[in-house]
């Protein structure tokens, strides 16, 4: 399935619009990851632990959106938007949402 942030797909014609489709993931960041990330913050450098969590959450949200688009009969998703939020009393939850338009193209 083609997934793109653009409103069209070069060389393809959109023949049917199936509707808006979403994918959501809410992931908790545990104490160990917080501790390791805190060390990166203290000593400088990138936090590989948080980066891995972010990448995983984004990939899972896109996979969920693709699954839902396929269930609608689409073979592509255009106009994809990715959003990130932190949730919870101590901001210990990461929410990634993706949305786009499920389409059939030929």
Query: How many angstroms does the end-to-end distance come to?
Result: 12 Å
Oligomer: single chain
Q: How large, in whole angstroms, is the Cα Rg?
A: 17 Å
Tally of helical runs: 2
Class of secondary structure makeup: alpha+beta
Largest sheet: 4 strands, mixed
Description:
- The model has no long low-confidence stretch (mean pLDDT 85).
- The longest helix has 24 residues, at 48-71.
- β3 (76-87) and β4 form a beta hairpin.
- This protein has 106 residues and is of the alpha+beta class.
- The chain has a four-stranded mixed β-sheet.
- The chain contains two helices and four strands.
- The two termini are 12 Å apart.
Structural features:
alpha+beta, 4 strands
SSE inventory with pairings:
Elements: E1 2-3, E2 14-28, H1 31-43, H2 48-71, E3 76-87, E4 93-105
Parallel strand pairs: 1-3
Antiparallel strand pairs: 2-4, 3-4
